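Teaching soon. Invent one.


***
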Amino acid sequence: MAAAEAGGLRSGVAAAGTPGPAMGEPGPAMGEPGPAMGEPGPAAGEPDPPGPAAGQPEAEAGAAGPVVAAAEAPPPPPPLPGLRLVQQGAEAHVYRGLFLGRAAVAKLRVPKRYRHPALEERLSRRRTAQEARSLLRCRRAGIPAPAVYFVDYVTNSIYLEDIVDSVTVQDHINSVQQSGSDSSSLLALAEKMGELLARMHDEDLIHGDLTTSNILLRPPTEKLDLVLIDFGLSFISGLPEDKGVDLYVLEKAFLSIHPDTETMYKALLQAYAATSKKSGPVIKRLDEVRLRGRKRSMIG
């Protein structure tokens, strides 16, 4: 009778849609978790699904970790004999080696993982091609720049002439200032830089990243034989605005990297104005760009 009453009770509760344990039937042990609300539990006699082994890292349990690590891996270096990494920048990795028996520099662009892959590929290819065009434009106009050996659009890398034993203008200025020697040679260097930039701008070529580290001095440095490098952000424009911004970027580099070089930059601008055929509107626009830069720094 007790069994019949228990069966009737179970059937009545089951009809209501909320099954419960039979009277006198042992429930789950204290502290043992039951199935989540609305989630079916395992069938009777079926073992629980195995979890990850103790001590197993999350990267092995999921697939996200290895994918992210692979995406952030640096691009492989180009296959050059005697290859060695000389500079690792935000835009590219620069290697030195031999290309067909000649001393060469390989510039390999670094993909930006935050961009869409199709957009990244389009931008990298466009900038690699523009850099090669700018270098060829300089050499046709008689402006010293490295020779282009080869352009690889598969890896977006460019192989250039290596200016052997050269030093950057930045290092040269720093060494002269630290040695305490006569700084009159720096004024002659600034005049040479102004003449070189005037010739480049008269070809309507905008460098895009004019700094003293992107201008080389061939040995011996007393000859002041300058070479322009790193045209990765260059473009073609005849607008005085773009040329003024180019000069303003160089001015900010002078003031931030080289202290007490105001007279040197003034000599550079005077040589630029005397050499360029289009210097009037450019110098005027440079003054306007300076005013905009001061307002931006004051406002923040």
In short: The beta strands are 84-88, 92-99, 102-109, 148-152, 157-161, 167-168, 205-206, 215-217, 226-228, 235-236. Residues 50 and 185 are 77 Å apart (CA to CA). The mean pLDDT is 80.
